[in-house]
Amino acid sequence: MPVSESVAPASGPEASTAGAALADPQYEGQPVTVVGGPASPPAPGARDWLSVLSLGFGIDRNGNRRSPIWTNIVFLGILLPGFALWGLYRAFATPTSVGLWVLAAALYLFTLFGVTLGNHRYWTHRGYEMKFPLQVVLAVASGMSLEGDIQQWVLNHRAHHRFADEVGKDPHSPYEYSQWHGYKGLAWAQGIWLFFGYKRPPGYEVHRDLAADRLVQWQRRAFAFLAIGNFLVPLAFYPLYGWNAVLIAGALRTAALMTATGFVNSVCHKWGSRAKDSRGLEYRADDSRNNSFVAVVAGGEGNHSWHHADPACPRHGRKVALDAAAAAAGARPDRGWRPDATWRLIQFFAALGLIYKLRPPRPEVCFADKQLAPSPSLRETHREWHMADPDETHELVPL
Hints:
The chain is mainly alpha-helical.
């Protein structure tokens, strides 16, 4: 039988991630169903092949077996990396042309913005409204990214915000596994989580805004065809570039995109700076980070701490000035480079009238008290990982 426990409904900035759908009182107080069930112990003397072959990822930290998703394992875990490595070899071992790399870069950006501009900042957080023709283009680009259909992507991401870094609830927390000096958890967050089923909590199984969106439902049904199209488009350039079109502009480019977006779940919950508000106080409700390298390769998504601090804001690469009192007290301002290509594209489409009702970034931000300290469950995880809370947290919560 699945294990369940009750959790409080979302509130504060995280609640805005699902828009009106998360405010529905029918979801309030419902139990959260954790993935998997109790693992059946192997017969005496028998080897537990599930644990061995999956390097332990097939068993969660509570001893429950995970349900493998064989299509993802075969296509994303075996075929795509294999052909991507072949493409990487051919990138160095065979002649390539500028046109081939332009094709690869164009498809990379097209599918990347399908995820960042479409799945994330529009369909998940509704940071703006969008004209239907642009929605269609982004729905196609999203499907070609191979990162799942829009509905699945959005629901998983809304659950991630609601349970950020809570082990067993966050679909891709790097705290899920502590082995290998913590790198096993990073590998899980980077992409291993895609190979196993994640049963979303009640209230995150489907949302009205997605169920009523005909384009989202069409894209869900057409996802397999869009995924195939991801490779048919570069295949059309076979007369010009031979098999390099498929292997480099197809497989290698797709693997690079999934690696870059995977960094947001792994690297950006481990390395980087935290968002600071106008008082110079850091966002600490979870362990999201701002990482400039990830922001470059993932179209601005690497400004992850600012995104978690203000999810509905469509600009992730941002900083706020200190208020007069904080500056006089010697508080340190938020520093660092915050590139955000997706925000620049949003501004471009807004100038064309394709994006409207844009939520502007607030020039001054003051984090709520609950955003300045980890949740009780995250503090418990920190203790398990022997991570000390900062001094300023001690003033906010009893430790």
